[in-house]
Amino acid sequence: MARIDYSNKIKGDNVAKAKANELNMSPKHSIEIAGLIRHMRVNEAIAYLNEVVKLKKAVPFRYFNRNVAHKRGLPGNWDAGRYPVKASREYIRILESVKKNAEYIGLDAENLEIIHASANRGRAQKAFFPRAMGRATPKVRESVNLEIIVREVA
């Protein structure tokens, strides 16, 4: 796989980055979570996503919301939502990573704001489901490239 650079070229002494390529999760779920956590504090985002994993809070689905049921208590006066547990676990992992990266370069881990969060579709792997009577059905395994950039705020 080729190395993919960050899509947003933010530089500075108070900026930390983290990136993960070809994660095995839904691109639609990851795009919705990226829109949710953008401009949040890192600790708030981790706490919210932990509640999503426990099925206590839902993620508002703003783009991919066809046939999505309404959920109570969604932020931002929104109605459609889901509980993307698998994608939330991966986001928690990358948020912990960017927190550690920020600590390593000397930033205060308690005052980090997410200034850039993006999820892009990764490489698709084609495979087949074996079926009865010697037939097969094609399937596509989707992957996601995540990147998070945080800035220390006072």
Short description:
By secondary structure, the chain is an alpha+beta fold.
Key descriptive features of the protein:
alpha+beta, 7 strands, 154 residues, three-stranded antiparallel β-sheet, 29% strand
Characterize the structure shown:
This protein has 154 residues and is an alpha+beta fold. The protein is 28% helix and 29% strand. It has three helices and seven strands, in the order βααββαββββ. It has helices spanning 27-37, 42-53, 85-104, and strands at residues 15-23, 59-60, 81-82, 112-121, 125-130, 136-141, 144-152. The strands form three sheets. A three-stranded antiparallel beta sheet has the order 1-7-4. The protein has a two-stranded antiparallel ribbon with strand order 2-3. A two-stranded antiparallel sheet has the order 5-6. Strand 5 (125-130) and strand 6 (136-141) form a beta hairpin. It is globular and about 65 Å long.
Q: Report the total helices.
A: 3
Fraction of residues in H or I helices:
25-40%
- Secondary-structure-based class equals alpha+beta
Mean pLDDT: 94
Gyration radius, in Å: 17 Å
Q: Are there runs of 5+ residues with pLDDT below 50, and where?
A: none
Number of strands: 7
Order of strands side by side in the largest beta sheet?
Answer: 1-7-4
Give the distance, in angstroms, between the N- and C-terminal Cα atoms.
39 Å
Beta-strand percentage? Answer: 25-35%
Order of helices and strands: EHHEEHEEEE
Structural shape:
globular
Q: How does the major sheet shape up?
A: 3 strands, antiparallel
